[in-house]
Every structure is written in C-alpha cells, then in structure tokens.
Amino acid sequence: MKYSKLVETYQQLDQTQATLEKTDILAELFKESDEDLEHVVLLALGRIYPEWMEPEIGVSSQTMIDVIHQATGRGKDEIEEVWKEKGDLGFAAEEMVKNKTQQKLMSKTLTVEMVVDRLRKVAEMDKEGLSQSVNQDKKKKEIADLISNAEPVEARYITRTVLNHLRLGIGEGTVRDALDEAFFNGEHSEDIQRAYDFTNDFSRVAKACQEGLEEVNSLDIELFRPIKSMLAKKVDTIEEGFDTVGKPAAIDYKYDGMRAQIHVKDGDVKVFTRRLEDVTKQFPDVVKAVEENVKSENCIIDSEIVGYNPEDGSTIPFQRLSKRIKRKYDIQKLKKEIPVEVRPFDLIYDEESLLNQPYRERWEKLNNSIEEEEKILRSVDHEETSEEEKVQEMQQKSLSDGHEGIMMKSLDAEYKPGSRVGYMVKLKPVMETLDLAIIGAKWSEGRRSGWLGRLYLGCYDEENDEYLEVGRMATGLTDKQFQEITEKLKPLITKEEGRKVEVRPEVIVEAEYEEIQKSPEYTSGYALRFPRMKQFREDKDEADSLEKVKGLYEDQK
C-alpha cells in the first residue's frame, strides 16, 4: 500500500471527532490493506511495534528539527518559528518540504512497508552499542532520507509518528470495533477484545481477523508476552468497597511500590512493569528471588516490588524505587542502595491460563507455588473478612507501616486484563487539597496545538518571597479547561523558550493529589504525586505556602 493512501485516511480521521465515523473510516482502510494490514493497524495507533515491545524510535523534537533541516535545507530558526506558531512540528515539516531548497535527483514513492521498515531500523540502532553522537547522526540520516522522499503532507505524519504525537483520537476500542466491522460485520467485538487482552498486539489480532473467527479465538496468553494488568477502582469508604466486591472479601495491603508482572518460562524469568516495559536487566535481584523461591517452571505472577532501606528495613517511597526502573548502568550499585522485596498477590498462569478461575483459587495456588523468605519474596499481607472493623484495623496498620492503604478484592471474580470492572478496589486516605499557583506551562502539540497544556504548579516560599515548583499537571483536563487555562495564562507570559513558558503566578488552582514526596527535581524540594485540578480558586490571589506543603508531608508519614 502506498503511504499516501494511509495519509489520506489520517486526514479524514483528523477532520472528525465522531467515534462512529472514525470507526467506519478505519474499517474501510483495514478492508483494503491486504498484506499491509499488520503495519497499518499499528500505524493507525501511531506505533511501529506492539505496545509491549521494547524498541523505541528515540528521537526528540530538537533532533527532529535537525532532521527537517537536513532533509529540506531550510533554516532551523525558520523551522522553530513555524513549530511555535502551529504548535506541531509535523506542520513545520510539511511547510519546509513544500519550500525545500534542495531536491533529490531520484525520489522514491513511499509505501507503508518502507516507512515501517525504516523507522524500525532507526529504533533498533540503540542496540548497536554505538556512541550517542554517532547513533543520533545515523538516526537523523535515515529519517531525513524518508522526509526528503515524502510529499509535504506525508512529512507531517512521518514527523508525528517519529515523535509519538500522531493524536488522531484513535484508541484501542476504535481499532477493535473497526476490525470487527471490517471482517465480522460488527458481531464479534468481544472475541477481538479477548484476543487483544491476551496478546497485547493488534497486528497479530488483525492478521487473525483476516483468517477468520476461529483463528481469533485461538489466540491465548503466551509467556514472555505481558498482558495488561487488571486495574482497581477507587472507593472512599469501606462500606462502598464491600458494596462493590461483595462479602466476604480479600483485603490486601496496598504498597507504595512498582506493580510487576513476573513471567517464568522453563525456569527463565522476565519482569515487566504495569506499562509493559521489560525491566528484567534492572532487577537481577528479583530474578534471583523468583528463581530460588517460586516452584513453578511456567507461570505468570502479579506482584508488587517494594523498595526498603537496607539500614533499618523500613519501606521507601516509589519515587526512590523508580530510580531503578530506567537505569541501564550501575545496576549492582543501585541494587545495594535500594534493595527490594517481591510481594506476589495473584497467579494468572500456571502451566495454563488461570484467568477464568475465581480469585480464591488463584490465591491458594499462588501460596502453594512460592516459598516465603522475608526481604526476598513473600505474599502480600492478606486477610479474608466480612467485618468492617477488621478492614479498618488492616487499613490503619498498613498506613502505620508506611504503606498506601488497602485493596479489597472479590473472592469469586476472574482476572480481567486491563479493566476496572469492580473486581478489586483501592481504599486510600483522602489527602487535603492544596491551592497552588500556575507558574509555567508548555504549548501543546497535535490536536491541542495552540493551547497551553502541561502546567507547572508552585507553592509560595514566604521567607524568600518567591514561588517554588511542587508539581506538574498534564492529565485529566478537558478541552474546555485547556482553552480556559490558555485564555487566563496568555496575558501573564513573561518568558518563552521553545514550547515552555513562564507566567506571573496569578492563576490559582485547587489541586488534588495522591501523596507528597521529597524530590530534588523540584525547587520546593517536594513533589505532588499525580496532581489533578479540582477547580480554579478565583477567590484567592496567593498560593498555599511551602510550610503548609512541608506540614502535609510530615502528617502523611
């Protein structure tokens, strides 16, 4: 398939906000994709690999400016000016290709296969062991060659794909329904969803759809291919928790650790995060713990990896543990500085899939499959009860031990990958909100270009008469809120640098958050975890103080 055909579809999708219309557009594309369907499905989601696979293109916006300059001969300042004006580097690439100063003697017509192969080649370069500068130069050359062969509008979408900024409003549900419409007349979305839950790979599911329903239903869990973790709903009271999961319920501690899906295949171990990243190399101690304490040779364990202080054994917050997740070097040193304990809480595969078995059976099998060893591997703190007093007791003990709260789980429920279906809920203490000033922001890209998006939140340091950063808020805002925030902040801009702006601290928002952590990254020394806007505080002209942030931090300890 010519890449231009896919780009035509991108443009159609860009021009509608209606989900049903997007589904129809994609279904027509999928019908016509033939042998390119596997690539087309991924590109529709802005990916070149399934979500769980490791290689990333690894090119920043600034590097992409160099690429566009190299491919078109246009000046970097000119590229940045269009980027700033449009809020989308894709539009800047399109404009530069329209007016490029250098022409190739022989240009190629781009195909879907050609684009995917080239971008995968770029993604794989990180494995070649080259120096960073040589690696980046090779990446630039390969992508610049694509851009120089592209038509202007093709350059727009190649740039967006490289930067993971496609933003067509296409989610996994839309792709699922489009495949259903294309191949099964809209009658088998549940089968397709099940296949995707088990494989996390729409390219594979799409190929199965081409071959028929029997092939779709044959797809199943595979070891070393992570599935999405079952997610918990949040409840505010124990009574609400029991209403959701039923009585009696399993009550587990909720740890401030890293959700980890641990796969064992013929004795070999791999560790995946909740985001499906392979972090096996970063956690050799987890691998060893599983090798020595898990009896099953082929299983998938859902667990929490909890960091602790090697001096006194006390648990440490996730923020410190997170240093180990992305680290590619000094692993042995970090392993000693931030040791971890594996806390399994579910068994979803043991020589065969256990997804359809009730939790009480999965829990029993889990405990029969492990040998507990303190500070190495042991199952989560767990009780089964119908009594609110017992749950409250566990919650208080969890909090006093430095954990986040509790989980309440249905003993009769199956395991639903990626879903918040009410089979388990989390009960955490309600944190007092903070009134904070917006002290900076970033111009958005893609569909929200022209709006100020990521917000930098500040508290007031009374001693030094200045605002200090305490959090960044980027999710959970509606289009209407983005528009309102932009209108309020634009007149207050005092400095611009690329997409980032600084603003006078005159807009105050009430922020909710999950907890406060110490952080050297922020000028206040503290960071709000998962801040979200509750409302504007039109009645306030000054943010809460740094002292209040410190006090709330101490109160939650």
Secondary-structure map with pairings?
Blueprint: H1 3-14, H2 19-31, H3 37-44, H4 61-72, H5 76-86, H6 89-98, H7 112-124, H8 132-149, H9 152-162, H10 172-184, H11 189-199, H12 202-211, H13 213-218, E1 233-235, H14 238-245, E2 249-254, E3 258-265, E4 268-273, H15 284-293, E5 298-307, H16 318-321, H17 323-326, H18 331-337, E6 340-350, H19 359-369, E7 382-385, H20 388-400, E8 405-410, E9 424-427, E10 434-443, E11 452-461, E12 466-473, H21 479-489, E13 493-497, E14 500-503, E15 508-512, E16 515-518, E17 526-529, E18 532-536, H22 546-556
Parallel strand pairs: 1-9
Antiparallel strand pairs: 2-7, 2-8, 3-4, 3-5, 5-6, 8-9, 10-11, 10-14, 10-15, 11-12, 13-14, 15-18, 16-17
Summed up, what is this model?
The chain has 557 residues and is of the alpha+beta class. The protein has 22 helices and 18 strands. The protein folds into three domains: 47-162, DNA ligase i, domain 1 (Orthogonal Bundle); 233-427, DNA ligase/mRNA capping enzyme (D-amino Acid Aminotransferase, Chain A, domain 1), CATH 3.30.470; 434-556, Nucleic acid-binding proteins (OB fold (Dihydrolipoamide Acetyltransferase, E2P)), CATH 2.40.50.140.
